[in-house]
Amino acid sequence: MNKPILLIVDDDAQVLAAVRRDLRARYRESYMVICTSSGEEALTTIRELKARGDSLAIVISDQRMPGMHGTEVLARSRDIYPLARRVLLTAYSDIDAAIKAINEAHLDHYLSKPWDPPEERLFPVVDDLLDDWQAEYLPEAKGLRLVGHQWSPRSYAIKDFLAGNIIPYRWLDIARNKDARVLLDAAGVGDDDVPALFFEDGFVLRNPEPREVAERLGRPLSAASDLYDLVIVGAGPAGLAAAVYGASEGLRTLLLDRHSPGGQAGSSSRIENYLGFPAGVSGSELTRRAVAQAQRLGAEFLVPLEVTAVSIDGGYKRLTLSDGRELVTRTLVAATGMSYREHPAPGVSEHTGAGVYYGSAMTEAPVCAGRRVVVVGGGNSAGQSAIYLSRYAKEVQIVVRRDSLRDRMSHYLIDQIGKTSNIRLRPCTEVERVEGSGHVERVALKSLVDGTSEVVDVDAVFVFIGTRPRSDWLPATVLRDPRGFVLTDHDLRADAEYARIWKEPREPLPLETSVPGVFAAGDIRAAATNRVAAAVGEGSLAVRFVHEYLALT
Ligand SMILES: Cc1cc2nc3c(=O)[nH]c(=O)nc-3n(C[C@H](O)[C@H](O)[C@H](O)COP(=O)(O)OP(=O)(O)OC[C@H]3O[C@@H](n4cnc5c(N)ncnc54)[C@H](O)[C@@H]3O)c2cc1C
Question: Going by CA atoms, what residue is nearest to atom 2 of ligand 1?
Answer without folding.
Answer: 381
